[in-house]
Amino acid sequence: NSTTCGSQTTANSVATTINTSINGSSLKAAKADSDFGLIELNSTPPASYNVYYAGWDNTGVIPQSAVGIHHPRGDVKKISFDDDPLQSAAGLSSVANSEWRIEAWERNTTTEPASSGSGLFDQNHRIIGQLHGGTATCSNSIDDYYGKFSMSWDGNGSSIPGERLQNWLDPQNTGATTLDGWDPNGSSTTYTYDAGFQGATAPVSNGTTCSGIIQPIITLKNYGTATLTSLTINYSVVGGANQTYNWTGSLAQGATESVTLPSFTVPSNGAHTLSVVASNPNGQADEYSANNNLNISFNAIVNAQQMFLTLDMDCYGSEITWNVTEQGNTTVLFAGGPYTDQSPNGEQIIEEFCLANGCYTFTINDSFGDGMNGDFCSGVTAGDYKIEDYYQNSYVTMQVVDGDFGSSATHDFCVSNVGIDENTLASIIGVYPNPTKDVINIRYHTSESENLTIELFDTKGAVILNNISANTATVTQIDIANLSKGVYFLSIKGKSGNVMKKVIKK
Fold first, then answer.
1. Radius of gyration (C-alpha) of the chain in whole angstroms
2. pLDDT tens by residue, 144-173
């Protein structure tokens, strides 16, 4: 935040630069009487964004003081204070008593143009309105008008859901008049000993793993004020045996760390839930347990091969669909498409799925009937497709020169090289963070470090980095900050075997 008025692009006390976003939203309600609009994001902000959900007060009771939080002129966050009771007014609205008037901001604070739409909070830290407009600037601090949350609540007597907040913020019609704010990553109270989780990078939530061996990678966060130096982590697949990992380290308040837990075997094919529980921070009772549990749903196909379908599109991705079935069986195991149109250049799509030893049929369809020949695209050559495994063994390739496979093409292929005991090395190798912007960490058991060799390939099989040797007993770090965004593959060879890991460069 900032303590000064005027243009300022860097905060006074910045610890880190925050650049987060959510794409897409939909309008739920709006009305000019109190100048409000309610939108809903298309997706929930990730836990790593540390979002705080503000509370509200719809009573219309005159606040005894108020605080405005805003980004004037697109500047860094600034806070304005009114230490006096607010006035009911209609300075910018044609509806009587539809606004809260800030007669003058105190403590040398004010708003500026482009602060409009920002929230106004009462002495209980609840939203009571949003800025409609006013005359306040850096040269003065008088007369700002905020549309009343209380009038927005019922849309000034409207019964239309699209003109009031009530239907969206109290859908059960409980009659609630106030709601306190909520921190999904912790509590609004600060505790000395409070450890919890922010999420996991492995296994992927709602994803599929081709192995019966899982190595969880979780994000630990210290929500407490005391530096976190030890923690008990219990984890298991629901219905399976419990495992305990005793973490030690040094995490300051608010700090996070990616923790790779020892691997374990899932009990069977199918859907599973990994349960992770934190306890005993610094050997003490955790004072806030709401963030101690992490549950991740995933699907496991034990002893299967990771397969990659690469689709190089023409510019009409919306015409393409595909599926994989067992030979002689119409039940679809995996499917994808249609995709987005992209002109003048088509896009490359990489899909992943798991196949156990057996024979399968891959079918690709084009609804227009010209395959991926690109004749109707500007500057796009014929597309293609292929299916490969981690080791870049080829199973399916396009069989027409010009990409025109017509309305449909089918390919039969068999998978027979999945080891009975899977790949031992794959069970003890961890790659994180993934996706990454700059650095890849490769974690492995000390028994592999002396003979470990690592290479990095692009999706075409070209070697990007080679002769990468293990540089510590348990972790090797690779800097890929200068590489282009996209998908790459790490080939890791050790005395226990070979494994390929997919890496996404953001």
1. 28
2. 999 999 999 999 988 898 999 999 998 877
36, 100 contact by CB (below 8 A): no
The residue count for the chain? 506
| Distance, first Cα to last Cα, the chain | 28
Residue 344 corresponds to which amino acid? P
DSSP string, 65-127: -EEEEE-GGG-S-EEEEE-S--EEE-SS-SSTT-EEEEEE-BTT----TT-TT-EEEETTSEE
Residues 241 and 266: their CA atoms lie apart, in Å, by 10
**Contacts from 465-470 at CB under 8 Å and sequence distance 24+?**
470/444
Question: pTM for the full model?
Answer: 0.46
The confidence band for 423, taking pLDDT boundaries of 50, 70 and 90, is: very low
Which residue has tokens 């090289």?
417
| d(C-alpha 80, C-alpha 110), whole Å | 5
Q: Starting from the edge strand earliest in sequence, which strands make up the sheet with 228-237, in order?
A: 207-209, 293-300, 270-279, 228-237, 243-251
Query: How far apart (Å, rounded) are the C-alpha atoms in residues 373 and 401?
Result: 9
Collapsing DSSP to helix, strand or coil, 340 comes out as: coil
When pLDDT is averaged across residues 466-486 and rounded to a whole number, the result is: 76
User: What per-residue confidence (pLDDT) applies to 4?
Assistant: 66
Report the chain's mean pLDDT, rounded to a whole number: 83
Structure tokens at 216: 């969880």
